[in-house]
User: Fold this.
Amino acid sequence: MKTSDLLDLGILAALWGASFMFMRVAAPEFGPVALAALRVIGASLLLMPLLVLRGQAGELRRHWFRLLVVGLANSTLPFMLFTYAALSISAGMASIFNAATPLFGAVIAWLWLHDRPTRSGVLGLAIGFGGVLWMAWDRASFQPGGSPWAVLACLGAPLLYGISASYTKRFLTDVPSLAVAAGSLLAAALLLVVPAVIWWPPVPPSARAWGAALVLAVACTAVAYVLFFRLIANVGPARTIAVTFLIPAFAMLWGRVFLGEVLTWHMVAGCAVILLGTALATGAVKLPRRWG
Assistant:
């Protein structure tokens, strides 16, 4: 991997890790629906001109329904779920649950696309989901101070990401990656316009919340999508998935530095277990040949 690619990978992880922090800042004032809408509307407005300049706008007409499905499963619903979770779960904790995305993706690809994992992959799935259950069990208390619905939201979002990944691989493999990114974000924006108007916050959000929403749209979504698909083109999807291992570290760092969030050994240990399982499930780490 070239130095420029490593730099892109680090910036992408930092941006996606920061997205959990900015959701924590803006969610209490905007609410899940309005903030998710601002995020996808802003990002699509930035990516659509780039799509037109590359002469790929026609892909939107040819694949509008499939892009609508991806927009719903990959942006509309997950962004609302994570924003809802940000109301009661720390940025670091939400990012740890997000690290389970490749685990859900591997299971869905196995069931839907018959992409059967190796023995190392099966072990990784077991370890990874064990880590997820461990983290969820600790936080999903319905007693006062617990946050069960936020935990369920954090598990629902990566499940939807996994569904979207298999759907994209099944139906949109031959469509340019920028068209998939811009088209799905535009679809998500159209899906959220009316709900955002209905659930717009009655009290005008502060300048701090608007700033967080703007950074979410521009840096953490539009710029991040460009970096992500550039990495896929340059180094391939297998190496690009390594960004998943870095996001929780950045999210916990930003949350600790800027929001004063507490970092516990339980979080670190749970993150390590989930990432170990993810690394095995995705093939980033493999058992010795006689075992795997």
Notes: Residues 207-235 form the longest helix (29 residues). Confidence is low (pLDDT under 50) at residues 142-146. The chain has one domain: 3-282. The radius of gyration is 18 Å.
